[in-house]
Amino acid sequence: MTDNAASARAIIDGNAYMVLATADADGTPWATPVWFAVAAYREFVWVSKPGARHSRNLAVRPQLGIVIFDSAVAPGDGVAVYLEATAEELTGDEIDAGLEVFARDSAAAGLKVWTREDVVPPARHRIYRATASAHFLLDEHDERVPVTLPA
Predict the structure, then answer these.
(1) What's the CATH number where 93 sits?
(2) Which domain holds residue 64?
(3) Which residues contact 11 (CB under 8 A, 6 or more apart)?
(4) Whole-model pTM?
(5) Region for residue 74 given its phi and psi (left: phi exceeds 0; alpha: psi -120 to 50; beta: otherwise)
């Protein structure tokens, strides 16, 4: 028997990019990959330009879908985690909380450690957080199975 929660955690832990599926005020869809950091498998943090299409979409419609998967596996061998979430640009003290998560994963990956000065005006980027309300695992049978991930 497969441990779906363990499989979902392994996919999230084993991948650096997630794909955001957003829509504008009229419902026109847009998808974009972003490098992400995660806290407790519920909060997914990234940095983006506020003028990027996905950032503008989230400003007017914060609901989004997210998928995390390994694109290097052979067709038919893929597994993925799908998330239903709500996203926001972080402000105030939430910036520091988001940066703590983002900096931890950035440092672990050998990347630049972002600071508050990197994500507040007049900087070009902002920090965003998606909070997952539901998780699904695409299993080996091509089924999307609801999964509960403990914090």
Answers:
(1) 2.30.110.10
(2) 4-141
(3) 68, 69, 70, 79, 80, 81, 137
(4) 0.93
(5) beta
